[in-house]
Amino acid sequence: MSNRFPFRPKQSLGQNFLHDPNMAEKIVGTLQAPPQAHVVEVGAGTGELTTLLAERYERLTAIEIDERAVKVLREKMPALDVRQEDVLETDWSALAAEHDGALHVISNMPYYLTSELLFALLEQRAHVAEAVLTMQKAVAERLVAEPKTKAYGILSVLLQLFAEPELCYGVPPQVFTPQPDVSSAVIRITFRDEDAPEDLALDDVRPYVRAAFNQRRKMLRNSLSAWAKDQNVTLPNDWGRKRAEALSPRDFGELARFLNAQAESVDGRW
User: Fold this and answer.
1) What is the DSSP annotation of the chain?
2) What pLDDT, in 10s, does the model give residues 71-108?
3) How far apart are CA 7 and CA 14, in angstroms?
4) For residue 261, which of 222, 220, 231 has the smallest C-alpha distance?
5) For the chain, what is the radius of gyration of the CA atoms?
6) What span, in angstroms and rounded, lies between the C-alpha atoms of 172 and 179?
7) Is residue 102 a contact partner of residue 78, using CB atoms and an 8 Å limit?
8) Which residues are paired to 268 by β-bridges?
9) pTM score
10) Each residue of 58-72: pLDDT tens digit?
């Protein structure tokens, strides 16, 4: 235990505590929530970001699974709404309803939770306005990757189709205790109705994107054979002869519409 932190970070919880006040200010400043917004911090830890957030936002909720951190936060900020829970079990719609408005989420989250939290926010994007997240730099680069690149994949397509991710800046290992073995980066994601296709839900697209990238070296007529070849369907735009990385997020949206329509026509014949 150091003089700066009241307890040792737990490796099992993926804890890397931010200790640099300048970086904390920069991360909090990346959040573009208005003063009256309901801000939710995920993985508040010992409160490096929380203290700054509490100075700016009256409606602040801190979610933390570690009972040691919860105790510290409640002692340090008695008026703060601190909830000891697993963020993967958080009811985002109920949280948004408490103050009748979309949530602004901020997190220096454990790396192992990154994908699950991103998918949770995507699934609940109707209740989330923005998210400012610190994650591994390599993962952050995947979120904003362009087609026909090695980093382009499932998260790239789904985040860019249903939201607007922006890689803001890098975060060096030296600002954390303990220092992670990799570099980090801050991503800001905005969730706006105009950013997402009106006629598609996440689960209308996700099965095709996953199947395509899980066999990314195969042509789409093979990786999507469960929907295409087996139903004797020819994919439009000669996409059947292309690999997953060749299609843009909008292309995958169009592909999902096509395959969903084919499935509905087959169901209708029965």
Assistant:
1) --SSSSSPPPGGGT--EE--HHHHHHHHHH----TTSEEEEES-TTSHHHHHHHHH-SEEEEEE--HHHHHHHHHH-TTSEEEES-GGG--HHHHHHHTTS-EEEEEE--GGGHHHHHHHHHHTGGGEEEEEEEEEHHHHHHHTPPTTSTT-SHHHHHHHHHSEEEEEEEE-GGGEESPPSS-EEEEEEE--GGGS-TT--HHHHHHHHHHHHHTTTSBHHHHTTTTTGGGT-PPGGGGGGSBGGGS-HHHHHHHHHHHHHHHHHHHHH-
2) 999 999 999 999 999 998 999 999 999 988 999 999 98
3) 14
4) 231
5) 21
6) 9
7) no
8) none
9) 0.91
10) 999 999 988 988 999
User: Residue 135, Cα to own-chain centre: how many angstroms?
Assistant: 10
- In the block, tokens 């963020």 appear at 87
**What type of residue sits at position 49?**
L
